[in-house]
Structures are given as C-alpha cells and as structure tokens.
Amino acid sequence: MNHSQQHVGRPQARGTDRSLARRAELIAIGRKLFADTSYDTLSMDDIAKQARVAKGLIYYYFKSKRGYYLAIIEDSVADLISRAAGGLELPPEERVHRTIDSYLCYAEQHQAAYRAIITGGVGFDAEVLAIRDGVREAILETIAEGVYGRRKVAPLPRMALLGWLCSVEGATLDWIDHQALPRDVMRELLVKMLGGALRAIEDLDPSYPAPPGRPPGMSEERGSADPRSK
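RESULT FIELD:
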C-alpha cells in the first residue's frame, strides 16, 4: 500500500511542477503583452491569440482577465522588491545606493509594469493599490534597515522616509517618460534627497541619528552640507 502511494505521488509532483512552470510562462507572456498594449484594449481572445494558447487555459490558471492582470502585477512587484532588497552583505551606505540604483533599473527596464504598480493600474483598482502599498512598505523597510539597522522605525522617521519615497515615485515616473537625466545622476540626486530627509529626522528626533561617518547624500564634512553650520 505504501509503495502504491509513493508511485501515485511522484506523477502528481511532476504535474505540479509543470503547472507552476506553465503559469509562470503565461505570466511572462502577459508582462510583454501589457507592456505594449493597455489593459482595456486587450480582450481575452486577443490575449489567447497573441500568447498562442487556448483561452480556456488562461481561465484555468487565473479565472478571469482581471485575475491574470493581478497575477502579472504581483509577479512584477516580487521582481522589483527582490532587486531593491538585495545587497545585505554591503555596508549601509553602499546598500542604500544599490537599493536606489536597482529601483531605477527596474523602472527603466519594465516601464509599463512600474507605471501600473505606482499609479494603481486599472481605474484605481483597490487590489492593485493594495499591492502598491505593499511595495512601499517593503522598500521603506529596506531603506530603514540600511540606514538604522532595523526594519521597523517610529512614526516620525517612517513618515519622513515615506515622504521621500513618494517623491522618488513621482520623480521616477517623470524620469522614465522623459529620460532627461542619466541614471547615475538620477540615482545620486535621490540619494542626496534621502540625506536631507535623514538630517531632518535627526533634528526632530535625536534618537534616530543619521548614520555615522558619511550618511547618504552628505558631503565629507557635515558642515559643508548642513546650513546650520553657516
């Protein structure tokens, strides 16, 4: 009986692996489709035709066009967070630089997905907005850990970092539309803006000092970057 159960289990495992692979393949196809065409323009028939699959297969995995779209957004979010949250082995300042650079790289290379994540996708879809809020929280925690050594911080530093991140989102949307600045210049600008936010946090709550040494966005000598020194 046990041998029989083992033999039955193996094909099921292979079937599950194939299903996951097929689902991932459909999501990859969808990311390309929605990168070139708006959500409202694409029908399920169009999607199935361009993906060269039966429409029923998409319904089988995702239930609906909206379910398919949400799965694509969630996959894009996971990719963005994975890129931004890497570099755990780096010193704090280098990790912050890497986080911001990875964020910009993602936005530049996956413009449609980035716009959908940040703007809320289709008609301010509540579920897409919830996904966006999750992205913000993950990025905030990544920055907080890089700066303060912990992911959860008090309301004041959290609000300051959130304000900075919202400005990053708006600036990045404009940047991918116009490409007025090279990515390395854009990255350094955002890093220096973060340095200003960190100094404001320290002024208002000394229990959250800016990182020792040279915090992100601060010049070699603090006095040259701090207007209070003049």
